């Protein structure tokens, strides 16, 4: 490409170059009270990497959201032409169909789903709504190879690091036949090595003909990968520059971004003029911290360092070096398990066991994740600034609102926080201004030591300089500053000394005069087991030393004498990976065994087993629906009352109006679905929280039940409906000691289960997903067949399988299949696991939420029919506490309150746990008062076990 002079926007020169793929003309976008974009122009040539630069709040992300349909056509002014055609995208799915795909700074991935499920989320390979798993996994594996990610397609996204998640996002974009790829701050959370790998991939995609737009504050990366750059400032286009032009320097780009020249990227250091103190302001001695879950691992190992008053000391290290872990553990032991070490303030030992103690000791910590740990994004600038210092602004526990505002206004002025007022919601500020609010909060607290963890991450060049100036001013006032950063130029430009870390240990210490990037990188990659010299020699790190570490033992050959221990280890590992599922089954088995012994064998009498199914059928139906609601991230408090209302309506139709029971069943199911749909509409489309909507529904449905029944019990129900709720399958064939049809059904279930397990194992082998060893697999099949056989014989030795059990089995199979294999089921997991990611993946979250509550209403109606028919009457008091039983069953069965986790089978197992508890306690004569206590303890135990399991797994 021939170098040409920088242009001040789109013009004939760029058109003449040919290959124009994108032309955005006069784009304006207004939010309430804010003009985000004003007459912005952007032109991008085919096959180039085009950078978009500007300060935080300049409008870069907003412009790309306009382009990608996140802000739909009609919400902005101007024209977008892509591939020569005018585009009017209504949503992100429309832009993706045209080949425009955006990867947001906040990754749009659902942690609980697999890599393959995330790659195809919103456009799953499916036939008639059923996901084609072999094609999905095969295509995902191809895409992972294309982006250079060596992971199994079925690996959970939660189990891989941020850099790999970024590659999953790119694979996800490639799966959509991308022509124009937009990357918003793709390397913001990556270290240098991972950033370099990602930039190389962008270059490879360019060679494959994919055009890219990259938003970044890292000008060095832009110079490395981009062909041209457009600069925005205050929502307007400043100019477009050709990066191959010798005149396009970093200084030129910075001047365009900030509207002025920056003579220096860092302020001149003004060391504190105070006389040297007899002891450092902060000294850390032999600080050792264990991993919060893996008790064999040390994340910080024997770290010692010091920071003098008026000094800025840096900590450098690659990802996993232990920098943040050190900072958080020193600040009130906020991370990991304290093992040993001492914190000294001005030579005296300081108590820092809790955050309040650390604050009282004069230590403040500015977290690297301001959005999650530094700010209340829903609250105002003023309240965020005062949060850590309320006791100083209060009299007798009452906050002085006037003084709070005065203080906030002072910080707004001195810190140059760009907010209209101190009452503005902090979540609406740009990243740089949010960072200034976090700094203000801790400066107001009056600390003598500030630990700053990535203080300028995600902040533009102009805001960075302002933050550097604040840090320098604090040091000049005699504060001690410990600064963690992944940007080596930042440490070299700001710090008086720099410590380097690797694998949780200090590997080097360098003064400002001797440090450079090469030296710091040498220390950062140094083996911490080998002492690093403080002053490096010219040949340091170039010697080859023999590896004297012990050789790990070889894995046991399955055919050798070590096979048995190897199999045992695999079994233990399998149980560890599936602790929640096995824990539920173990708890159910333990409860059954306990009451079988306690009742002298009465619990598992064939008649009692049949009664157990009949007594809990309606709760199990509700539990299935409730599990799906909770997976979607919602709750439904109305199902018990809706159950009662449906029973009342059914009684009126069948008893008073003599409507045929099959017709009445259809009508009442439709009424239940309609009730669920109405609630779903208010939740999904109006935006009222599900807790409020269903609480109102609970009161409404209970009142309507009283109106329909007028306080009276109404019955009996037709015999046909009673047989569905209380009857058993008919007998076929010769008379024997067992129910023949039940035995045949049991054999059919065994055949289906064994066939499905063999099929799953074959699929795992096909995709190299490490299936269970053959002997463990056979053991699993034997256990499954034995459990089904015992249950079949118990039922067949009485009256056979209850009809309602068949209904439950059909529901279990259907909903289990839908949640695992049907597109809408995967979308339920997605919106519960990460709603923003699901939206940005094109999932129609409102329709999915609406469908979830419609389904819950229908299942509540079915449960109400079964309950009313079982007791042969509709009662105003029916359904009381049913919603609590269903919620408890879902949580015992493995649901998570945060959504996105759970299975339909888990809901049934959780319901059976409660059912066995109820039945067993009735058999042994435990009163209803103690029954409630015991069930409450069981729920706490299940949730507590889940919390422990997540912590053990490092969730």
Could you describe the 3D structure shown?
Helix 28 (803-821) crosses helix 29 (823-833). The protein has 955 residues and is an alpha/beta fold. A six-stranded mixed sheet has the order 6-9-10-3-11-12, sandwiched between helices. The chain has a six-stranded mixed sheet with strand order 18-21-22-15-23-24, sandwiched between helices. It is globular. It is built from 34 helices and 24 strands.
Rough outline? globular
Any idea what the radius of gyration is?
A: 33 Å
As laid out across the biggest beta sheet, the strand order is 6-9-10-3-11-12
Structural class: alpha/beta
What is the strand tally?
Answer: 24
How would a crystallographer describe the biggest sheet? 6 strands, mixed
Q: What is the CA–CA distance across the termini?
A: 49 Å
Give the averaged pLDDT, no decimals. 84
* Proportion of helical residues: 40-55%
Low-confidence stretches are 1-18, 532-564
Strand content: 5-15%
Number of helices, where a helix is a run of at least 4 consecutive DSSP H or I residues:
34
């Amino acid at each position: 490409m021939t170098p040409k002079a920088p242009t001040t926007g789109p013009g004939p020169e760029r058109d003449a170059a040919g290959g124009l793929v994108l032309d955005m003309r006069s784009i304006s976008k207004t939010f309430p009270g804010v003009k985000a974009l004003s007459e912005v122009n952007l032109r991008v040539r085919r096959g180039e990497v085009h950078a978009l630069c500007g300060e935080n709040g300049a409008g870069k992300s907003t412009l790309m959201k306009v382009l990608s349909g996140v802000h739909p056509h009609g919400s902005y002014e101007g024209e977008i032409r892509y591939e020569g055609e005018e585009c009017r995208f209504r949503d992100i799915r429309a832009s993706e169909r045209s080949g425009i795909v955006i990867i947001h700074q906040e990754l749009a991935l659902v942690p609980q789903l697999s890599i393959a499920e995330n790659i195809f989320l919103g456009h799953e390979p499916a036939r008639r709504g059923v996901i084609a798993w072999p094609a999905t996994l095969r295509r995902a594996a191809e895409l992972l190879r294309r982006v250079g990610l060596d992971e199994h397609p079925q690996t959970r996204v939660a189990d891989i690091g941020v850099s790999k998640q970024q590659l999953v996002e790119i694979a996800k974009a490639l799966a959509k036949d991308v022509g124009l790829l937009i990357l918003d701050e793709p390397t913001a959370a990556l270290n240098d090595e991972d950033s370099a790998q990602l930039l190389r991939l962008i270059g490879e995609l360019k060679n494959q003909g994919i055009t890219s737009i990259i938003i970044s504050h890292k000008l060095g990366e832009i110079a490395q990968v981009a062909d041209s750059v457009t600069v925005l400032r205050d929502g307007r286009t400043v100019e477009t520059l050709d990066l191959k032009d010798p005149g396009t320097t970093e200084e030129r780009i910075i001047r365009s971004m900030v509207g002025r020249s920056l003579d220096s990227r860092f302020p001149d250091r003004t060391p504190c003029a105070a006389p040297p103190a007899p002891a450092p302001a902060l000294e850390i001695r032999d600080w050792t911290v264990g991993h919060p879950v893996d008790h064999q691992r040390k994340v910080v190992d024997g770290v010692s360092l010091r920071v003098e008053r008026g000094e800025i000391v840096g900590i450098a290290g690659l990802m996993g070096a232990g920098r943040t872990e050190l900072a958080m553990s020193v600040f009130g032991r906020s991370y990991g398990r304290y093992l040993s070490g001492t914190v000294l303030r001005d030579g005296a030992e300081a108590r820092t066991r809790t955050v309040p103690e650390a604050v009282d000791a004069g230590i403040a910590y500015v977290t690297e994740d301001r959005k999650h740990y530094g700010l209340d994004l829903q609250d105002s600038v003023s309240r965020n600034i005062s949060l850590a210092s309320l006791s100083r602004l209060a009299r007798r526990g009452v906050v002085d609102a006037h003084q709070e505002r005065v203080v906030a206004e002072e910080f707004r002025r001195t810190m140059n926080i760009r907010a209209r007022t101190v009452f503005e919601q902090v979540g609406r500020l740009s990243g740089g201004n949010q960072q200034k609010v976090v700094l203000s909060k801790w400066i107001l607290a009056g600390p003598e030591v500030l630990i700053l963890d990535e203080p300028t991450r995600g902040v533009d060049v102009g805001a960075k300089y302002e933050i550097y100036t604040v840090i320098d001013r604090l040091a000049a006032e005699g504060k001690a500053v410990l600064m963690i950063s992944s940007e080596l130029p930042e440490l070299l430009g700001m710090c008086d000394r720099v410590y380097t870390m690797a694998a949780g240990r200090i590997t080097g210490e360098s003064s400002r005069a001797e440090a450079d990037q090469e030296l710091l990188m040498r220390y950062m990659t140094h083996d911490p087991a080998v002492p690093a010299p403080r002053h490096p020699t010219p040949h340091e790190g170039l010697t080859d030393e023999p590896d004297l570490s012990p050789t790990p033992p070889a894995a046991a050959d399955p055919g050798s004498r070590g096979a048995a221990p190897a199999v045992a280890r695999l079994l233990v590992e399998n149980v560890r990976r599936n602790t929640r599922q096995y824990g539920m089954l173990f708890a159910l088995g333990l409860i059954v065994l306990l009451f079988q012994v306690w009742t002298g064998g009465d619990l598992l009498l064939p008649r009692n087993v049949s009664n157990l199914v009949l007594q809990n059928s309606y709760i199990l139906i509700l539990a299935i629906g409730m599990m799906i609601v909770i997976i979607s991230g919602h709750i439904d408090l109305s199902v018990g009352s809706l159950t009662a209302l449906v029973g009342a309506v059914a009684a009126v139709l069948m008893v008073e109006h003599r409507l045929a029971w099959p017709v009445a069943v259809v009508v009442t199911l439709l009424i239940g679905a309609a009730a669920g749909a109405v609630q779903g509409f208010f939740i999904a489309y109006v935006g009222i929280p599900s807790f409020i909507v269903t609480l109102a529904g609970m009161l409404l449905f209970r009142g309507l039940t009283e109106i329909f029944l007028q306080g009276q019990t109404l019955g009996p129900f037709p015999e046909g409906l009673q047989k569905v709720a209380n009857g058993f399958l008919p007998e076929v064939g010769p008379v024997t000691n067992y129910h023949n049809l039940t035995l045949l059904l049991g054999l059919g279930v065994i055949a289906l289960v064994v066939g499905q397990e063999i099929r799953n194992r074959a699929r795992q082998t096909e995709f190299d997903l490490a299936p269970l060893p053959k002997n463990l697999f056979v053991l699993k099949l034997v256990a499954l067949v034995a459990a089904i056989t015992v249950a079949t014989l118990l039922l067949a030795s009485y009256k056979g399988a209850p009809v309602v059990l068949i209904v439950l089995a059909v529901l279990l199979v259907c909903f289990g299949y839908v949640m695992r294999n049907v597109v809408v089921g995967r979308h339920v997991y997605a919106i519960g696991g990460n709603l923003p990611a699901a939206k940005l993946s094109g999932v129609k979250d409102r329709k999915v939420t609406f469908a979830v509550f419609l389904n819950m209403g229908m299942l509540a109606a079915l449960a109400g029919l079964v309950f009313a028919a079982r007791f042969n009457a509709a009662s105003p008091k029916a359904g009381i506490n049913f919603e609590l039983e269903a919620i408890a069953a879902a949580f015992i069965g493995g649901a998570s309150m945060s959504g996105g986790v759970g299975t339909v089978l888990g809901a049934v197992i959780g319901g059976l746990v409660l059912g066995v508890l109820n039945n067993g306690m009735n058999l042994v004569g435990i009163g209803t008062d103690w029954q409630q206590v015991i069930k409450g303890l069981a729920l706490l135990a299940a949730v507590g076990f889940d919390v422990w399991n997540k912590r053990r797994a490092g969730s």
